[in-house]
Structures are given as structure tokens and as C-alpha cells.
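Researcher: Following up on the earlier apo prediction. This time include the ligand. It's zinc ion, with the SMILES given after the sequence.
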Amino acid sequence: MEILPGIHQLKLPFPLQPEELAVNAYLIRGDRGCLLVDTGWNINQAYSAMERQLREIGLGFADISLILITHFHPDHYGLAGRLVQASGARVALHRIEKDFIDSRYMNMDGLLDQTADILRANGVPEKDLPRLQKASLGVRQYVAPVSPEVALEGGEVIGQGPYRFEVLWTPGHSPGHVCLLERTAKILISGDHVLPATFPNVGLHSQSGRDPLPNYLRSLQAIEALDVDLVLPAHEHVFSGLAPRIGQILRHHEERKAAILDALGAGPQTAYEVSLRIPWIVHGVTLSYDQLQALDRRLAVMSTMAHLEPLCTEGAAARAQRNGVTVYSLPGAR
Ligand SMILES: [Zn+2]
Ligand SMILES: [Zn+2]
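Model: Understood. Below is the ligand-bound prediction.
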């Protein structure tokens, strides 16, 4: 689908999971090759879907000269290795995430150990640990890793045909997430930072940085006032109304914080125990923690941690260590 002259949305399927995991990549024509933003998963269906959609606009893989990955999650980066082989394109990723590619997708033992340590220290029962620790290994098969050549910082300008895309560093959903802003065309390629229907997950883990939720809220506020007519997200559909959508996301996190404080009213408890007391929304359905799949359980505990830590910083909650486990409480509670 051509969104503006020379800017195409490519729909890349993920047939094994709900619709939400289908990815929108964006292809922007240029005088010296095309810019591809995000790649989809490393599955044959996505590869051939991209090949077919390129052919429909008279292009092939060899026309891609730069692949910019908005962030290192497997649905955005998964196909990068195969696309580099087919195109010879360079891959650009934020510096922070470029440094994590090896531990996340190539030599993963250290990351698995860190994940288990974090979950254990936040109250996940020992019997549940192996399943939660290894829950993301399944997606590894949908990633063809490649070392990115280009490290982004934010602030770069990429000239592409008549367009000038500014790289905006928007940490939060992931530590090196970037968006692309075209001020004249008034479009924002938003990756997973802002989606029209889903609230992007924000979790605290060994590759998230210390303050993922405060970073995320700041990154939303930083783009709230941009003069943008059209948002091009990596999932779901193109939409207008950036500021109202950001307002909804900010309110959502206020509600989550309120629910967590409410749960703490029951007494001191771990992030895992808080996760048992609050509702979870997965693909639009509200579930209890016990109804979640292993990976969603892990994301739930890490999301609760991401909300609890800033509550401690604000003084709305308190943190203590008991036998190597972090316990949260309302201030003054014992
Ligand atoms: Zn993501
Ligand atoms: Zn995504």
C-alpha cells in the first residue's frame, strides 16, 4: 500500500500467532537505493510476502540499500539476516541495542541466567522458573541474526528521495527504540512506541535499562506535541491523532499504577504476588495471571516491576530486601 508518494507499507504475516504479531514494514524509495524500516519475522511466509509486495511496485531485494530496525525485538529484526544476504544492504540499529544482539540472539546463556536471577529475586516460585526463563527461546527460531553495521544515536537525518527522516531516540518499550519523523510530510514512523490499539509492553529486565517506564513516559511526552498528520506504526493500522493516542497511553499507565498501589494495600509482597492480584490484557482479552502463557507471565512480572520501581522513587511505595527477594509495600506498612 502506497501511503505517500514513494512510501509503501509492506504487510508481513506471522501465521502461528494472533493477528497482532503481523508486522508493518515501510519501504521508502530513494535515488541511491531504498530504505526499509523493520523486517518482520524470519519465516518463509514473511520473506515471500515481502518479495511479492516489492515486485508489485517494480522492485526487488537488490534495491534495498539500508535496513533500519526500530528496535531489536524479533518481530522487527528477525528477517534482517536473510534480507542482508539477498540485498547486500547495511543494517542500522540504535547503539545500545547493537551491543545486545550477541547476548540476545547468538550467545544466550548469560541472558538466560540473568533472567532467572531477576525472576527469582522478584518472587517467582522456583518450580515456575525454568518455564518462564526459557519462554522466549521459542521465538529464537524466527530470527536470522546479523551484526548491524550502523550504530544510531538519535538525531541523524536520512535523506530519501524528497524526504528527510530524523531519527528520534524513544527509549522505553526497548532501550534503543527509535522513531522516524518527516517534518514536511508530517509523518511519524512509530515502530512499537505508539500503536493505535495495543498498549506496548514496558518491562524491567537485564537489557531494559534501570528506568524503562519513566523513560517510556518521557519518550511519549517528547513526541506528543509534534506536528504530525499520520502515524505509521509497526503493527495494526496507519492512524491520525498522535496526541490523543498518547493521552490514552499515559492514562493507561496511571491506571496500572493505581491498580498496583491498590494491590499493595493487602500488605508487603513481591512483584510476582502483585502480578497475581491485577488484571492483564492480552490481545484485547482481560485475563488473570494464572490464565497467561509462560512468556506473557514473564512479561507481566517484568511490567509490574517496571511500574513498582518508579512508585518507590516517587515515595508512593517502599522496597525492602528479605532473604534475597525484593518486597514492596505501601510506605509505613510492615
Ligand atoms: Zn517491540
Ligand atoms: Zn513489535
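Model: The chain has a mean pLDDT of 95.
Researcher: Noted. I'll compare it with the apo version next.
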